[in-house]
Amino acid sequence: MAGYNLARALAEAGKFDEALKTLKPLVNRDPDNAALLSLQAYVLHKAGKNDEAVVMYRKALALNAGDAASRFNLAVLLDRAGQVDEALSAYLDLLALRKDDAPSAYRAGLLFLASGQYEEAVDYLGRFLALKPDSLDGLRAMARAREGNGEYSDAMDAYKALLAKLPADAAGWFELGRLRLTIAEDAQGGREAITKALAAGFTDKEKAKALVDHEELVDRDELVSLLTEAGLLGEKSPPGGDGPPAP
After folding, report:
1. How far apart are CA 38 and CA 90, in angstroms?
2. Domain chopping of the chain, boundaries
3. 3-state helix, strand, coil in the chain (%, to 5)
4. Rounded CA gap, 150 and 100, in Å?
5. What Å distances lie between residue 56 and 38, 192, 217, 227, CA to CA?
6. What CA dihedral angle connects 128, 129, 134 and 136, to 10 degrees?
7. Residue pLDDT, tens place only, 69-90
8. CB 63 within 8 A of CB 93
9. The whole model's pTM is what?
10. Spatial distance between the Cα atoms of 212 and 210, rounded to a whole number of angstroms
């Protein structure tokens, strides 16, 4: 126990190499000690040795499948390494152990969202927001998931909930305006939202161009004028028109 506590203290002090040196003989003497393996995995991760950390977390979980912290840490490392299927499986396993694990529900929702599994994304992001209703990132992700799942009214509601908490969110206003102008056929509400996006500093020319090119867009001329004036659709004309400069 003294060696474990020393290694943990060294790790907390940022002395990862020393912590690993302290842990090595302990693990050699007691290779089936899940707590030691979990600590070693954590220190390996902090030392930048993520591949070795993954191996060690797997060993720790084989000995103690109910170690929620190790399971979550393993899932995060797999997620960062692009091993999406394994990461998602680990998050879901953890949620089977702890249904109210908000970080796992959020990360699972994001993975479902990224893979286009919108119904599942709505489910897990909904679980997350039930636990963390004030999460701005959660509301943004839920809006995207709702839209992907064809729940357009709920998507707009998610953006409105986000903007009620963060009124200066330029991207949120733009996305709300986009949905109003292309789905809800709400020309006035759409213009108002886009105007607020511009006032909040929206500058994404690519998204602006995609919006004016949308086949279902209402109020196209007004929007083109608004975005051109903001400099998002080509160059704004200088004062005095397009004539030749004065001699």
Report:
1. 16
2. 167-233
3. 70, 0, 30
4. 27
5. 7, 54, 53, 54
6. 80
7. 999 999 999 999 999 999 999 9
8. no
9. 0.84
10. 6
